[in-house]
């Protein structure tokens, strides 16, 4: 917050209250997600007698369904956000998520879980809309810091969530975290409604510039599409691990000990690394530019997946995932910062919704890739394929920057 003190006279009235409220909303959203999802495969395992392959596939579907529906409807919500504002979109996401997550805790079959996850995805998007709202309220020269700060909120929640979820699940069972998350998301809905202010002038549907015209206003369209692809691949690299991390830990621990707690630690370590480095990376981004930060981050992330592929200890895996978290602090925020700098503000809602669709697509791709590869081969193979995908992403960004410089 102090980093923006010299910009106070340029900030809209109520900016700090809005920022704090949305930051907390993103924190709770991230915490609720990570408090429930790392253990959903173990929850599913309690609802039936499944083979290893069936359990991996059902776990992948439970992860993927939210993002399949999210990818389909995000452009509609983005268009509505440009006409009605992002605050309304945040309220819509928080309210529906409160309902669907709570009902998921009452599930009696795997298909009920999958159905609720699909419905949740159709109305989700709190973090993306909160980020777009703050992007529109913040001076461009501070965009890198603000995007990193907003990303830190979700990441901080992802850090706390697995530890809390693992502890609660180990004592009370896998349903309790869903009930708690549903209640917290309802509080986020109320906080967003009453405590945030958006200086937004509604645009009539007939006066909205079509996307073709917006595209022509962007100086380097190829870079924007490269950021969409980056969002997809980076998100896939995260989601390829999430569905199988608790099952991988269970395998490494030979099904003995407090698996839920250790899995929670392994799931949380990237969040800790991300939290520790996000602010510094945000400042670096504002000084040297987000493109350089993104390219260096992709190279380091690729290298870190090599030891993760070879390790057979959950604590060693947690260490390497911690280092990955330090690096990941520069990936998604960098891509989003590039979007805020190169896209007209009147199209933020639509561009961020397209980016959210690619992010959702990455979640689907990653979840199915992780569950499919682990089901047909091994858990270690998931890490190898994920690292290779990030290396390919590096060359996509490099090609785009080379052409831009030319």
Secondary structure elements and pairings:
Elements: H1 15-36, H2 40-45, H3 52-84, H4 86-104, H5 110-123, H6 126-137, H7 143-172, H8 176-195, H9 211-217, H10 221-239, H11 245-252, H12 259-288, H13 290-310, H14 314-328, H15 332-342, H16 348-376, H17 379-405
Helix pairs in contact: 1-6, 1-7, 1-8, 3-4, 3-5, 3-16, 4-5, 4-6, 4-8, 6-7, 6-16, 7-12, 7-15, 10-15, 10-16, 10-17, 11-12, 12-13, 12-14, 13-14, 13-15, 13-17, 16-17
GO cellular component, one term: plasma membrane
Transmembrane segments: 20-43, 55-73, 93-114, 144-164, 176-196, 217-239, 259-281, 293-311, 317-339, 379-400
Domain Major facilitator superfamily (MFS) profile: 18-405
Summarize the structure.
One of its GO terms (cellular component) is plasma membrane. This protein has 406 residues and is mainly α.
Quaternary state, please? single chain
The CATH homologous superfamily: MFS general substrate transporter like domains
What is the percentage of strand-forming residues? under 5%
Number of alpha- plus pi-helical segments: 17
Radius of gyration: 20 Å
Number of domains: 1
Mean pLDDT: 83
Question: How many strands?
Answer: 0
Shape: globular
**End-to-end span in angstroms?**
38 Å
Looking at the overall shape, the CATH architecture is Up-down Bundle
Q: What does the largest sheet look like?
A: none
Unreliable stretches: 402-406
- CATH topology tier name: Growth Hormone, Chain: A
- The helicity comes to over 70%
Helical/strand content category: mainly alpha
Identify the CATH class: Mainly Alpha
Order of helices and strands: HHHHHHHHHHHHHHHHH
